[in-house]
Amino acid sequence: QQQVKQSPQSLIVQKGGISIINCAYENTAFDYFPWYQQFPGKGPALLIAIRPDVSEKKEGRFTISFNKSAKQFSLHIMDSQPGDSATYFCAPGAPSNDYKLSFGAGTTVTVRA
Amino acid sequence: NAGVMQNPRHLVRRRGQEARLRCSPMKGHSHVYWYRQLPEEGLKFMVYLQKENIIDESGMPKERFSAEFPKEGPSILRIQQVVRGDSAAYFCASSPPAVTGELFFGEGSRLTVL
């Protein structure tokens, strides 16, 4: 049972462009919607997260958009930089299962200079 | 360094040997989660522990795998009689007592089984 579907699997964007990654989920009990960033050989690091009481959250160049009715949330990276080249994971969680985060398969973002 | 500490970072074992992976959570954190990541895949939940208690081990294989988080010392993920399919990166994450979903991950332990 795949609870979380992340797309695209990979994307290439020019420096200064916008990267958009989508995450669709099935479990309506999820109430925490984070995005993690992972560089090769490193552990995932929390990038930005949203709760369902808001539809959008922005932190610097990173924005989460949340659509509760569609059961989807997305990550937008504005003015993409080469240093943003990494793998990004959505990983929603629910209090009913102690926030065992359900990781998507990941999106590898490559930002070309 | 106040982050989640994992060791060893890299571990090589031959088939049939035992692997022990250690995780020290962030200061003040009392919850530990272990995840496994296969190449080119996302992280899969294995086990969730609090001090001296296993809360949820639903993601852990029934045989050869065990985990503990003693009152003193790090959490340990133990894999007995390793097989090649156990080769993966094992990540530990910790969270504070008030569980909100925000997990802080270590750098991982990369196990290679020859």
Rg over C-alpha atoms of chain B, rounded to the nearest angstrom: 13 Å
Classification by helices and strands of chain A? mainly beta
Which residue ranges of chain B are poorly predicted, with pLDDT under 50 across at least 5 consecutive positions? Answer: none
Taking strands numbered 1, 2, ... along the chain, how are they ordered across the largest sheet of chain A? 1-3-8-7-6
Q: How would you characterize the largest beta sheet of chain B?
A: 7 strands, mixed
Q: What does the model show?
A:
The complex is a heterodimer of chains A (113) and B (114). Chain A is mainly β and 113 residues long. Chain A has strands at residues 4-7, 10-14, 19-25, 33-38, 45-50, 56-59, 62-67, 72-77, 86-90, 107-112. A 5-stranded antiparallel beta sheet of chain A has the order 1-3-8-7-6, with no helix packed on it. In chain B, strands 2, 4, 5, 6, 9, 10 and 11 form a 7-stranded mixed beta sheet that branches. A 4-stranded antiparallel beta sheet of chain B has the order 1-3-8-7, with no helix packed on it. The chains are: A mainly beta (113), B mainly beta (114).
Main attributes of the structure:
heterodimer; A: 113 residues; mainly beta; globular; B: 114 residues; seven-stranded mixed sheet; four-stranded antiparallel sheet
